[in-house]
Amino acid sequence: MSKILITGGAGFIGYxxxxxxxxxxxxxxxxxxxxxxxxxxxxxKIKFVKGDIxxxxxxxxxxxxxxxxxxLGAINGTKFxxxxxxxxxxxxxxxxxxLIEFCRKRDVKDILFSSSSEVYGYPQVFxxxxxxxLSIPNPYNPRFSYSASKIIGELLCIxxxxxxxxxxxIVRYHNIYGPNMGHEHVMPQFIKKxxxxxxxxxxxDGTETRSFCFIDDxxxxxxxVHDDNSNGERIFNIGNDAESxxxxxxxxxxxxxxxxxxxxxxxxxxxxxxxxxxxxxxxKSVGYIPKIALRDGLKITYDWYSKFYENN
Length: 312
Hints:
Elements: E1 3-7, H1 12-21, E2 26-31, E3 47-50, H2 56-59, E4 68-71, H3 78-83, H4 85-106, E5 110-116, H5 144-164, E6 167-173, E7 176-177, H6 186-195, E8 201-203, E9 209-210, E10 213-214, H7 215-227, E11 235-238, E12 244-245, H8 246-257, E13 264-266, H9 281-284, H10 294-311
Parallel strand pairs: 1-2, 1-4, 2-3, 4-5, 5-6, 6-11, 7-10, 8-13
Antiparallel strand pairs: 9-12
């Protein structure tokens, strides 16, 4: 049974990845519990190390003989990009530097790095392939603190993997959603407005598009591309190729909730890309097939958040 370290394992994607891997692997979670508590795990076989990925001394508390590291530890959430961009850069870049040093010292031969669709900036090609240029359109826009940290992280992983001789895989996640995903993203924000009877204010004009991917599909895709050994260039888009506008999302939310929604739109300053639609053919070539339709995933997500916001 291989020994897997998952940094950020108490976060949204990490938690679901841990639960997917715990039956067939020895799983260790390394997290500072910023986005999620260890208390939500019920399996006593999972090992936990509380620590800060920016402190190399905390990495020393991790058990020996790690076979693979899934590095998900980072500051995520659009709200944080705008409010604490310097912290986003500090944590996300130092975290990868310490990951690589840990791999060197412990002779870890396999890492997966969690990147993002944000690295494409304002993409020009749709569907957007992994070969699309990476860009930081405006360094003065704090939103791009996150994408910059992920571009740097990718470069660190690729180049030091070559230097130290370990396998690397990079997954660029595209708008992953589901229950307990946090509160800094569009879906929980919309659901909260609905449950709390708040003004349904929407930044932008509603024509912006995203390709939302349910968490179960994202986890399945992550494991498939990690296990693949047929691709030399190991960067994969993970997401859904079904594109929906924000107005589409609002209409679906009205359907699944049974509530009328009257959105009011306002101009978004320092906005991200107008459109996002990934080319996932590379991941599909190794068996990845998104299965959860947006309406079905949104219903599951709405049910979880509606209970949460009714009680909090």
